[in-house]
Amino acid sequence: MVAEAQFRNYALDKLIFRYPELGLCRESITMAYRLIEESYLSGGMLLVAGNGGSAADAEHIVGELMKGFKLPRNLDSKYIESLLNVDHELGRILAKHLQGTLPTIALDGNPALTTAYMNDCEPLLCFAQQVNGYGKTGDTLLAISTSGNSKNILFAAVTARAKGMKVVGLTGARESRLSSFADVCIQVPQTETYMVQELHLPIYHCLCLMLEKRFFGGEIEL
Q: What pTM value is reported for the model?
């Protein structure tokens, strides 16, 4: 089995082979991975926020981390035993089909909460309110903004820092306010919105692959 560190290097090599311009981002991608890894190792979770296409990216990331991406993610034997002890018939089905997860929440969801908050309070704080409610020390906020200056993302980042969370930014090439709040900011070498988004996807796929390998083992072919 390929060692985790070797796999990370291999995954990054493959990413940069397919998208050579992302060679500039190798160090920041590695740093972002380490921050998210530390959160999961400490029992924390990942909160993801973005607007428009970046909101779709946030949901996409949840889909890759909350279920199997390239690996089966079988449950451990103790958990299976507990399921069977509660109810053997239902537990057997659960044990067969449930998959291991890396807890991740996309903050563009919860429309009842967000619309109520936006109507009753301050619309630009819709993500910050959820960071305030969900976030705790040791968690990580992945803040996606092509400009790095989206106000609702900035409010969420400030709230996360105040709660002792780590902040990973995913932006375009320009320096931004988000980069000043983030512990690490992955700045892809494009400035046009759709071009920035085209480079965000392979980056977060690479992060998800490396995290899955770290926490679930197994062989992953790229």
A: 0.94
